[in-house]
Write a structure and sequence with these properties.
The chain has about 450 residues and is mainly alpha-helical. Strands 1-2 form a two-stranded antiparallel ribbon. The protein has a two-stranded antiparallel sheet with strand order 3-4. Strand 1 and strand 2 form a beta hairpin. Helix 3 packs antiparallel against helix 4, helix 8 packs antiparallel against helix 10 and helix 8 runs parallel beside helix 19. It is elongated, with a radius of gyration of 30 Å.
Length: about 450
């Protein structure tokens, strides 16, 4: 096993069949051939190369015609796979008619083919990412609707803070993934751009001033945008999409981290989807580990680390670089495979998430009223002053813990509180978590209104 994505055991955990296919040798080489076939076709259309040569090149440019053992040998010898592919095109077309294959790869350079193939692979990747985001957002909408009034405790610095609703928690996640959908749409216009400039990007080898015409025709045929200028060593496009994947998997990891914490035995507010032996221990039969969340956070952390390498790859020398470009070859396939796998695991987790509202209610009672101390403070503040009320409630909360008494009991017995004129019924209202979820429900509705169903 050279990597987890190649492993028979791990490849469907840390990758997916669909994304692995996109970043396979077969698909990459198919896109090399698509570039060469499309280039020959448009060049014949505008009279740069003979039609007979273009037809012969097109006829050969199917991945089943490639000798991959020979391509491996040539790549190891040359250092790049594109020339090995071009050599096979030239040789096979020349076998039909001597000299006819020499029209292949006319005016192009290795990086034109490689970069364009990478962009086409990224286009396919973004299509998968978009589908996964639609599924995630659809299921999050369902959770928001179902649990917009399900009361639970919010946590600050891992401590109980104030009441909120589980729907509010999920709506924040939905809003974040909706922003990722917007980012995805914005990135496409900058990313899905042809690379075709020749040796140094100037298209000097396309004579009679037809270089830009050829470039535009090739871009149209491949379904890509025309570059405003060559970008051989301007790698912001690739770095940006890597940064997007880091953001995306970071959000997945934040959700998975919350699930891990909420699945702790002492908390028990949610559980990952159950099926026999999922997340089980080899020695502790009672265990139900948050295994999907574990994988999501591991993949997200790896994507963030690998994405940093794409920023390093931006530091390229002159018009064609000596090394930084190859960093992309190493990390980009891993970033894409891990990102898609993390998204699908996140989608599965959201779809089958078990929500334990009874545990959420039980946990609200752990502090014997401390979770609503802010509500009590603000109820007393108009007459006692906010800071005085804060210090008073702070002291009563300490006594509640030390004496193991409900905060309500101590409030009813406190002279200052009694002087404030609040009745027991009013104090009970202040101490009811259901009365202090703020605008949780309204904010959930606002998020739902600003998004739309994806299924």
């Amino acid at each position: 096993m050279s990597s987890v994505t190649d492993s028979v055991i791990f490849r469907n955990i840390f990758s997916t069949p669909a994304i692995s296919s996109i970043w396979s040798d077969t698909q990459r080489t198919s896109y090399y051939l698509l570039f060469e076939a499309s280039l020959a076709s448009v060049q014949a259309d505008i009279g740069i190369i003979p039609r007979q040569a273009a037809d012969a090149i097109l006829a050969f440019c199917h991945v089943t015609n490639i000798d991959f053992d020979e391509l491996r040998i040539q790549t190891e010898k040359i250092g790049y796979p594109v020339l090995g592919v071009v050599k096979q095109i030239v040789q096979n077309v020349n076998n039909l008619q001597p000299g006819l294959g020499e029209w292949a790869h006319w005016g192009a350079t290795t990086q034109d083919v490689t970069d364009t193939a990478t962009i086409l692979q990224l286009r396919d990747t973004l299509n998968l990412i978009s589908e996964a985001l639609d599924a995630i957002n659809s299921d999050l909408r369902r959770l928001c609707q179902t649990h917009k009034e399900t009361i639970m405790v919010a946590r600050s610095n891992l401590q109980q803070a104030v009441p909120m609703t589980f729907g509010f928690k999920m709506a924040r996640l939905l809003a974040t993934f909706e922003r990722h959908k917007q980012r995805l749409a914005e990135i496409k216009s900058r990313l899905l751009v042809l690379e075709f400039g020749g040796a140094a990007g100037t298209l000097a080898s396309i004579k009679d001033g037809r270089g830009l015409e050829c470039q535009a025709a090739l871009a149209q045929k491949l379904g890509l945008s025309v570059p405003e200028i060559a970008w051989h060593t301007e790698r912001d496009r690739i770095a940006e999409v890597g940064g997007f994947f880091a953001l995306l998997t970071g959000t997945c990891s934040k959700f998975a981290t919350d699930v891990k914490l909420m699945m702790q035995t002492e908390v028990g507010e949610v559980s990952e989807p159950f099926y026999p032996h999922r997340g089980s221990s080899s020695t502790m039969p009672q265990k139900r580990n948050p295994i999907s969340s574990v994988y999501i956070t591991a993949m997200g952390a790896t994507v963030r680390q690998l994405s940093a390498a794409l920023y390093e790859a931006m530091v390229e020398d002159h018009e064609r670089a000596t090394g930084p470009w190859e960093i992309e070859w190493i990390v980009l396939p891993q970033i894409c495979t891990l990102t898609h796998a993390a998204l699908l695991k996140t989608s599965e987790l959201i779809t089958g998430l078990e929500v334990h509202s009874d545990a959420m209610k039980r946990n609200l009672e752990i502090t014997r009223g401390g979770v609503v101390s802010e509500a009590v403070m603000m109820g007393l503040a108009p007459k006692l002053g906010r800071q005085f009320a804060h210090d008073l409630v702070y002291e009563l909360c300490r006594r509640s813990v030390q004496e193991d008494l409900p905060l309500l009991t101590l409030l009813c017995a406190d002279d200052k509180v009694q002087e404030n004129g609040l009745s027991k019924e009013e104090l009970e209202g202040l101490c009811d978590p259901a009365n202090y979820t703020g605008l949780s429900v309204e904010m959930v509705d606002r998020v739902l209104a600003s998004t739309h169903p994806y299924r």
